[in-house]
Amino acid sequence: MITxxxxxxxxxxxxxxxxxxxxxxxxxxxxxxxLFGIAGxxxxxxxxxxxxxxxxxxxxxxxxxxxxxxxxxxxxxYTGDRRSTAMGYNAxxxxxxx
Length: 98
Fold this sequence. Notes:
Number of domains: 1
Strand content: under 5%
Distance between the termini: 11 Å
Number of strands: 0
Shape: globular
Radius of gyration: 14 Å
Number of helices: 4
């Protein structure tokens, strides 16, 4: 269950980064938030384990951009010591959440 959720980030992270630089972060992050939320909500209603795995895969496709772009957005919004602190919080919460 965890592998299905975390594996797509390995492949999609670099691709999403390039697309976000070309098209803009907002164009990538807004649909990703919707996909993450819809797939996560659908997981609640899954009655079959295989369906749950597919929904978790879809959820991670949405989350892949959120994980990679969160670091980019922290770099955009913070400088100096505040940036280091924000990146530390981001890494801690991402690890706990996964």
